[in-house]
Amino acid sequence: MLEPGDQAPPFTLQDPSGKRVSLEDFACAGALVRRLTDSDRSIAVNDAAELARAYDSAHGHAPEAILRQSEHGRYLIEIGFEGDLAVCAAVDGVPVVPFLKDGRITPDLAGDGTAA
After folding, report:
1. How far apart are CA 31 and CA 92, in angstroms?
2. What is the pTM of this model?
3. For residue 21, what pLDDT is reported?
4. Closest CA to 85 of 21, 14, 27, 15
5. Which residues pair with 106 in a beta bridge?
6. Which end of the chain, N or C, is less packed with Cβ atoms under 10 Å?
7. Which pLDDT value is given to residue 1?
8. 62-104 pLDDT, tens per residue?
9. Burial group, residue 67, by CB count within 10 angstroms (0-12, 13-18, 19+)
10. Dihedrals φ, ψ of 39, to 5°?
11. Rounded to 5 degrees, what are φ and ψ at 35?
12. How open is the CA angle 112-102-106, to the nearest 5 degrees?
């Protein structure tokens, strides 16, 4: 029991494997689910995807605000990287899709899953 003046411990939401859920990842997942289901109405989603899509519907219009509210976004601000939040929040800011091959991230210039 907390006494007056005590600080409550932080509440942490974890996935079934015990990993912490991050707000920025959840928001990004919602945006991806929305885009996919908007382009193909036959795609069925599970409850987690539906929750993420609902979060995106309510808050996805302001990705930088989401980052500022997130635990890691607050940490970046605290250590002097506030300017990075706008770059991280940019949607469709890069005209190529990144591709991971042999431990390196490269552009998928052909758009076919083969790195340049």
Report:
1. 12
2. 0.70
3. 81
4. 27
5. 99
6. N
7. 56
8. 999 999 999 999 999 999 999 999 999 999 887 777 778 888 8
9. buried
10. -85, -20
11. -65, -40
12. 50
CA dihedral in degrees (32, 49, 26, 37; nearest 10)? 20
With tokens 């800011």, the residue in question is 93
Residues 84, 70 contacting (CB under 8 angstroms): no
- Smallest CA-to-CA distance from 64 within 98, 100, 27 is with 27
Query: Please, what is the angle between helix 47-59 and helix 23-39, to 10°?
Result: 100
Length of the chain: 116
Please answer whether residues 67 and 24 qualify as being in contact, where contact means their C-beta atoms are separated by less than 8 angstroms.
yes
